[in-house]
Amino acid sequence: MDVSRVDEALLADLLANTTELLSLYNRDFRLTHYAARLKGLYGDAVVPGAAIWEIYPSFLDTRCRDEFLRVFQGGSAASIELPRSSGEAPRSVFVFGTANGVGIIESQGQGGRSAAEEQEHLILLHQATHDVLTGLQNRRRFGERLQEALAAIGGPKPKAALLQIDLDDFKSVNDTLGHGAGDTLLQLAAGRIRDALQDGESAYRYAGDEFAVIQLGKEQPVEAERLAGTLVKAFKDPFVINGIPVFVGSSIGIAFGPEHGTDGEQLMKAADIALYAAKTDGRGCARTFNRSMLLLLEQRENLRRSLRTALERGELYIEYQPLIRPPSSVIGFEALLRWRHPEIGIIPPSVFIPIAEADGLMDEIGRWVLEQACRQALAWPSWLTVAVNLSPAQFLSGSLTDTVAQIIDAVGIRADRIELEITETVLLEKTIDNIDTLNTLNVLGIRISLDDFGTYYSSLSYLKNFPFDTLKIDQYFIKDLEIDLKSQTIVRSIIKLAHGLGISVTAEGVETSAQARWLVEEHCDCLQGNFLGVPLGAEATSDFIRRSPSKGGRALEESNRAL
Questions:
Q1: Does the N terminus or the C terminus of the chain have fewer Cβ atoms within 10 A?
Q2: EAL domain: which residues (predicted)?
Q3: Sequence-separated (6 or more) residues with CB below 8 Å from residue 110
């Protein structure tokens, strides 16, 4: 860092952190920024716009003035001894150039530092309080500032606001483009946060891809919500890294002191809970803390603890939903995991599966589901298949293929009776390794299905790079199929695309006869939904098979006759 031309933005950050007698002046010799300690020393003389000689009259002295002007006109930084009266402690100032004028650091009661010493001092001060990668204030300074902000509020003064900011989908950028691109993204993100700030707002890099902003002296909650909206909007535009547009949103949690916390730890916890709510609500949004969020979080923690023992207590079980091939053939069942909590009752998979994935429980649970489903399939006629969903988390251990092979051998089921369903999320995480895993499973003779096709990051490259046996059209496109022309066009296109690639198509969420008729007319290979057969307990599947083509099969035949 060249102190003879120190960046003024850096110095503005230093002013917020230093205990030094630091001040900045413009080209008209007028005060623009100053440290709080300088104001405490010189009182009313320190106001924005004050002339430099009003604070340092010694600069009217010929020797001091000439040395000051030399630095001001582009010379190297210099330490200047100030004249002093008899018995007065030594005083010196270190003068250095900035982008728009000069800066001064005053030393009292000691000999003046050399230019090299002052330069080293500035660098060390900045490094101790700032993040090396982004230039924002660091976690250490964040903790100090948050405590100072909370200590300063009270009475009629406005409350302090804390905004916790987390980047959405940052991990996928690191995994797909590399850590260098990830670092560049963090720098660009920090720039967007910095650009959104106004007076009374300071930004920090808290950890990893987590940032924070502290607001002081603002009307709340309106100002915090305004800033959060500005940040969410700023992150909707792509970041361009090595010529590649990268989309990374921001989720924001807001909390206010002292309302939501009287110390830093309490306020950070409240903002973090609000951030979690923003993530849960779909990300790319901001949420303000309220007590109900805390209650929901406590309920989630209770579920997390219960889930760890749910398998051994026999609370997890499987239901099987029929898969129907027109006009009326039952070709298999999909295994659907359920949890019956002894106190709460039935808990939806959409609630407990993410908990299991986050807590590393999916390997154990997934193995149990696959083994139970395969054993149940042995009780059915040998031509019926069983479909089992795989979580993206099951691919992380690297032992999925071994687990599947071991279960096939232990149960004694033919591999071609098993269909493993994955979502496109699997293909986003460690893509090469996961494709290799799918290819190995395919070599074993297991069928592979791409579930929820069209609702995530649908890429035709998936269909080119891996020979899927089945595409499952998500119920999002099926629910309004009778009336929505766009859904009809999309579903029709998926069916034709899949058939052109030699891939079978299954439609999920078929709830009405009209939906079934339309899909049969468009040559959809397999239908699944409550209209054709609701999820059944293990014992009920045998009865369903015996009565086919009744129930779902008969409903489908009646739909066919109505065509």
A1: C
A2: 300-549
A3: 90
Among candidate residues 255, 289, 323, the one where a domain is terminated: 289
In this predicted structure, what is the pLDDT of residue 120? 61
Q: Which residues contact 291 (CB under 8 A, 6 or more apart)?
A: none
Q: In degrees to the nearest 10, what's the CA dihedral of 212, 214, 218, 221? A: 50
298 inside domain: no
Query: Considering its fold, how many domains does the chain have in total?
Result: 4
- 88 burial (CB, 10 Å; 0-12 / 13-18 / 19+) is exposed
The β-bridge partners of 211 are 165, 205
200, 149: one domain:
yes
What phi, psi does 78 have (nearest 5°)? -150, 150
3-class DSSP assignment, residue 370 = helix
* Mean pLDDT of the residues in the chain: 84
Which pLDDT band, with edges at 50, 70 and 90, does 178 fall under? confident
Tokens of 205: 């890099």
CB within 8 A of 214, min separation 6: which ones? 142, 145, 146, 149, 160, 161, 162, 163, 201, 202, 204
Check the CA dihedral 480-486-488-490 and report its sign: negative
The rounded Cα 27 to chain-centroid distance in angstroms is 45
H or E stretch including 386?
strand 385-389
The helix or strand, by DSSP H or E, that contains position 146, with its residue range, turns out to be: helix 139-152
pTM: 0.57
Q: Is the dihedral of CA 380, 385, 390, 396 positive or negative?
A: positive
Q: What is the mean pLDDT of residues 408-437?
A: 84
Element (H, E) at 491: helix 485-500
Does residue 5 register a pLDDT over 50? no
Structural contact between residues 1 and 123, judged by C-beta atoms closer than 8 angstroms:
yes
d(CA 506, CA 488): 15
- Taking each helix axis as running N to C, give the angle between helix 362-377 and helix 400-411, from 0 to 180 degrees, rounded to the nearest 10: 30
How many residues are given for the chain?
Answer: 563
Contact 547, 502 (CB under 8 A): no
Question: What strands lie across the sheet with 201-207, from one edge to the other?
Answer: 201-207, 210-215, 160-167, 250-257, 286-288
Report DSSP state, residue 329: E
Strand, coil or helix: 224: helix
In a domain, 422, yes or no: yes
Half-sphere exposure in the Cβ direction for 113 (13 Å, CA):
18
In a domain, 442, yes or no: yes
CA atoms within 13 A on the CB side of 191: 8
CA distance 387 to 369: 11
Tokens of 328: 């009326």
